[in-house]
Amino acid sequence: MAAKVLAIVLAGGEGKRLMPLTTDRAKPAVPFGGMYRMVDFVLSNLANAGYLKIVVLTQYKSHSLDRHITKTWRMSTLLGNYVTPVPAQQRRGPWWFAGSADAIYQSFNLINDEQPDYVIVFGADHIYRMDPRQMVEDHIASGAAVTVAGIRQPLSTADQFGVIEVGEDGKRIRAFREKPTDAVGLPDAPDEIYASMGNYVFTTRALCEAVERDAEDKTSKHDMGGSIIPMLVERGEANVYDFRDNEVPGSTDRDRGYWRDVGTLDSFYDAHMDLINVHPVFNMYNFDWPIYTEQPPWPPAKFVHQWGERVGRAVGSMVSPGVVISGSLVENSIVSPKVRVHSWAHVEGSVLMEGVEIGRHAVVRRAILDKNVFVPEGVEIGVDLEKDRQRYTVSDNGIVVIGKGQKVEP
Ligand code: ADQ
User: Fold this and answer.
1) Ligand 1: which residues within 6 Å by Cβ?
2) Which of 37, 142, 176, 288 would you label with 74, given CA atoms 20 to 30 Å apart?
3) Quick one: average pLDDT of 335-344?
4) Which domains does the chain have, with CATH numbers?
């Protein structure tokens, strides 16, 4: 009989470095790629693999995340399938989740209900395609207590990741340090580290034991990367699964192995630019491994030329349904549903979220505009960064970010 697998998606992260996009929503609920929310990527990976018993642990500003999951991921409950958002519930005492391990501790009832053989614990804020079945098979074959997905990343980013050191066999994890500031590069690639992707497969008993033991430790921060994984590494029971071995149907030579942690405004912006390349670094048009999302009854995008030779155009861009681009030019941008771009406007290298409206003659360059931002006639954004810094958030790489509901003065 096939092994019973329960998937737990950790979606409680605050996402401070994505402010103002996370002002009133959890990081996994941040819109991505026009039509999606970040959490859709992990959920699609699980669903495509046939893992359809999924609980999503939420906490921080979870309203829009809950609503999205309940609306979009409402699945047939035939065969006992479900995708359920579970908010922090204070089941173990009068406190909210202290960290991701505490979130699991407080959710033991869900594991007890399901009695799975293995538990998949995946993060909710990465952009990638992965077939988790291959990792589960690898885990079962090895007999480890936990298997951690690993990927090579630049040495300069070591302080953002759990850094893995493997033994001679290339599988057993010898050391694991969460976000070290003094990491050294790999023997065969001095400017790279082996990073944890924050995706784990556990043998159920081992997970429960480790989490219970951690709960008793009053000095622990109770998070997976900082406490649980190092504990199992110390006991010699943790293995790595190399993400390079993962084969996803329909992936191209160019986007095989793509994985992005979109934790900062610049990485969030860059991951969007990866989508719109002619030969995209990450190909959304892989119909063999679809990314699912909500599909409301929006009409197709429309391009109109109201002013003689002023043709409404979008090039090098992804344009969602419900959009009207009229007598204006949109280049190298991601345009979400129900965006309006009016005559003589020019949008370039930008991410426009749902319902954004760009007035006539406005210029928007290298910017992220959150939901329903209205740019009045003639306003320039991303042209004079000094001026923009006085009113909006400007990232390290000079991307101007305007939050939901923030007013743009004429
Ligand atoms: P981080 O993402 O920094 O590093 P963390 O903040 O614990 O670690 O978040 C991990 C996941 O858990 C995220 O999906 C987050 O949304 C969620 N989460 C955090 N606190 C939670 C809570 N209280 N309740 C529910 N969910 C919660 C992790 C690993 C690193 C690894 C990187 C890869 O710890 O080892 O390298 O991910 O990006």
Assistant:
1) 10-13, 27-28, 57, 59, 97, 99-100, 103, 123-125, 161-162, 178, 195-198, 223-225, 261
2) 288
3) 97
4) 5-272 (3.90.550.10), 302-402 (2.160.10.10)
